[in-house]
Amino acid sequence: MSKTNILYQHGTLALLVPGLLDGTLTMNELLKHGDTGIGTGEGLDGELIILDGTPYQLDGDGNINIIDGDFIMPFANSHFADYAEMMEIENIERDDLQSQIKQAANSDNTFFSIKITGTFKNMTTRAVRKSSKPYDSLAKTAENQNTFNKDEVTGTLISYHSPTLFDGAAVGGFHSHFLSNDHSFGGHILSFESVTGVVSFQQFDTLEQHLPTDNKEYMEHDFSKDNILDDVHKAEG
Length: 237
Description:
It is a single chain. This protein is α+β, with helices and mostly antiparallel strands. Helix content is 16%, strand content 45%. Strands 6-5-4-3-8-1-15 form a seven-stranded mixed beta sheet, with no helix packed on it. Strands 9, 10, 11, 12, 13 and 14 form a six-stranded antiparallel beta sheet that branches. Strand 12 and strand 13 form a beta hairpin. It is globular, with a radius of gyration of 17 Å.
C-alpha cells in the first residue's frame, strides 16, 4: 500500500543557490515515491509537474513535454495523492486564498500539499532555460527565465507548503506549479489574480529527505558562504 503520509524530497533548494545543478535522481526513481509532484531538471531545465503518475515539463521556450524515465533532476518533490476536498472557491484573489487555506489547514508547522482544479485569471508562470557546466548561481541562472501569461486558463495547481523551520531545505510557505487541462501552458507560478474551482488538501507527518551523496561537488561544498534564504526566496517566491 502507498504511504500517503510521506512527502519525498530529493535534494534541497539550498543546493541550487551556489549552482549545484547536476541531475542526481532519475524520474523513474522519483516516481517510485509518488504519482504527484514538482521539480526541475539538470541545469534548471524547465519546470516539472507530475499528475496521475505522468511527468510534464514546461521548457524554457514554453513547450509542454512529457518526459521519460531517464530525465535527471537536482531537486524534486513527490508523494502519493490522497487529497480530501477542503473548499469550493469563487473568484477569490491569491492572497485571500492562501490565508483561507492556512487557516483551514491549521498545519503551519508541518508539510502539506494543496491541489486546486479550476479556472484562473491573469496567471503568470515562468520556466528557466537549461544551462550547462560550469553552472552559474541560482540567482544568475534564474535571470535566464521566460515568463508566460494567460488571461484565463483552466487546469491544475499543485502546491507544497513547507514550515518556516525547514526554510532552505525547501522554501518556507507555498511552492506552486501549474498545468493547463489542454497541456498548452504551465510552469512555476509567479502570480495569478483570482481563481474559481475546488481546493483539496493532503497533510504529511513524515518528510523523507534524500541527499545526493554520490555527487562530489555537493559533498564538498561549503554552504556557510552562501546567502541561502534570501536567494531561495528571490528565485522561488
